[in-house]
Design brief:
By secondary structure, the chain is α/β, with parallel strands linked by helices. It has two domains: 4-45 and 168-291, Rossmann fold, CATH 3.40.50.1000; 49-165, Calcium-transporting ATPase, cytoplasmic domain N (3-Layer(aba) Sandwich), CATH 3.40.1110.10. It has helices spanning 4-15, 23-30, 39-43, 61-72, 78-90, 123-126, 133-144, 172-181, 194-204, 215-229, 242-247, 259-264, 275-291; strands spanning 18-20, 34-38, 49-55, 98-104, 108-113, 116-121, 148-154, 157-165, 185-189, 208-210, 232-236, 250-254, 267-269. It has a seven-stranded mixed beta sheet, with helices on both faces. Strands 3-8-7-6-5-4 form a six-stranded antiparallel beta sheet. Helix 1 (4-15) runs antiparallel to helix 13, helix 2 packs across helix 13 (275-291) and helix 7 (133-144) packs parallel to helix 9 (194-204). The radius of gyration is 21 Å and the shape is elongated. The two termini are 16 Å apart. It binds adenosine-5'-diphosphate and magnesium ion. Magnesium ion (MG) binds at residues 38, 40-42, 236-238. Residues 39-40, 72, 75, 77, 79-80, 106-109, 120-122, 148, 150, 190-192, 215, 238, 240 line the site of adenosine-5'-diphosphate.
Length: 292
């Protein structure tokens, strides 16, 4: 049965917008030594915006932007939504017909438009070795600014680079600083490119990051962190994050995250504010001292 001290900790946390799904998680949270954090939607707002577009001179820019927007309109990925919003602001999509659109989780999308195969996604997915030095140069520069780089490829030729910038949440930096003060080691996990990851981690004040992480690889990294640190928490918001949340000693979901993440998590942050988890960690260790 649940002790009065635990119950009081849970109700105290609930008043501060942190939902514990059971007493055991209060105890587990008090033991964590490291915390893995998803980048998009957890450290950042998860609302990226297109900031730059470079289209190869062999293609019509208006057409490329319109096609990318039309294809991405069939995906719910935050990057896809940003590409569609950008495209809608600039170009008319009505005449473009998209066939056979496919989501490739953690990578991008493919589709057929005007009888040509389009691939849109991260550099490794579309095959950056096939792009010109010109486009690769632009891509690295954009990634170093913390922007996510998306390539568009038509029939095997890379024709455009899109850069998307997401904003680090106001509360992130302070929360990371507090975690470090509590002696808890933060690690950022992301499917994004190394250069982008490095810039965002730096902005958030996180020293260790793991980039180019496919959704299923997040689970492996959580398991490795468990081996190294003993008890770890994982914070995420997306469908992709659910298996990693389940693999951590304590899974924490951002309240505005997807249903799957909310269901899988042990703790839900009702407001998307990381500071609430650091407060709960302090609370849980205090409670644990009282109980023992
Ligand atoms: P994260 O781990 O940052 O939440 P994902 O695992 O969902 O990201 O995706 C990893 C990378 O794959 C993205 O950074 C992006 O480059 C690419 N990607 C995924 N889906 C799309 C899409 N619909 N359009 C463009 N790029 C995409
Ligand atoms: Mg995310």
């Amino acid at each position: 049965s649940i002790s009065p001290a635990t119950l009081s900790a849970i109700s105290n946390a609930a008043r501060k917008g942190v939902l514990f799904k059971g007493g055991i998680h209060v105890e587990n949270l008090s033991h964590i030594k490291a915390i893995a954090l998803d980048k998009t939607g957890t450290l950042t707002k998860g609302k990226p915006e297109v900031t730059d577009v470079h289209v190869h001179s062999s293609m019509d820019e208006t057409y490329v932007i319109a096609v990318v927007g039309a294809i991405e309109s069939e995906s719910t990925h935050p990057l896809a939504q940003a590409n569609t919003t950008f495209s809608n602001k600039k170009e008319k999509l009505s005449s473009i017909e998209v066939y056979n659109m496919k989501n490739v989780s953690g990578n991008g999308v493919t589709a057929i438009v005007d009888d040509k195969k389009w691939e849109i996604g991260k550099p490794d997915f579309v095959g950056k070795q096939q792009s010109s030095e010109f486009l690769n140069g632009i891509a690295s520069e954009l990634a170093e600014q913390g922007k996510t780089v998306v390539f568009a490829k038509v029939e095997g030729e890379i024709v455009a680079v899109f850069a998307l910038k997401d904003t680090v949440r106001k509360t992130t930096k302070k929360a990371i600083r507090k975690l470090k003060e509590l002696g808890i080691h933060p690690v950022m996990l992301t499917g994004d490119h190394e250069l982008t990851a490095k810039a965002v981690a730096q902005e958030a004040g996180i020293d260790q990051y793991i980039a180019d992480c496919l959704p299923q690889e997040k689970v492996e990294h959580v398991k490795e962190l468990r081996k190294k640190y003993g008890n770890i928490a994982m914070v995420g918001d997306g469908i992709n994050d659910a298996p990693a949340l389940a693999s951590a000693n304590v899974g924490v979901a951002m309240g505005e995250g997807t249903d799957v993440a909310l269901e899988t998590a042990d703790i839900v942050l009702m407001k998307n504010d990381l500071a609430r988890i650091t407060n709960s960690i302090s609370l849980s260790s205090r409670m644990n001292r009282i109980v023992k």
